[in-house]
Write a structure and sequence with these properties.
The chain is α+β, with helices and mostly antiparallel strands. Helix content is 28%, strand content 38%. The protein has a 5-stranded mixed sheet. The N and C termini lie far apart (43 Å).
Length: 85
């Protein structure tokens, strides 16, 4: 059990650091997923997300249609937001 606790502790520290930086940038967080290899934070699309370095475009199909997203790395987390196709 101790190893899973240390993994979650590291992820929470990374999320806290990323959250502090996103707050300074004025970016609102919609959702946080700690159950992936790297924590994923979904944020609300806004002009400030364009200031995230190294953003990459991804597209995937779902039963309801295609979803287009951008993602960037920040403080050992993945930051994602939806974009209009």
């Amino acid at each position: 059990m101790a190893s899973i606790n240390s993994i979650y502790s590291e992820r929470l520290i990374a999320v806290a650091a990323a959250m502090a930086r996103l707050n300074k940038m004025g970016i609102s967080i919609i959702e946080i997923d700690l159950n992936r290899a790297r924590p994923v934070m979904t944020v609300q699309p806004c002009a400030a997300v364009n200031n995230l370095k190294g953003a990459q475009y991804s597209r995937r199909g779902t039963p309801t249609g295609m979803i287009s997203r951008m993602q960037a790395k920040l403080e050992k987390c993945r930051i994602e937001w939806e974009v209009r196709a």
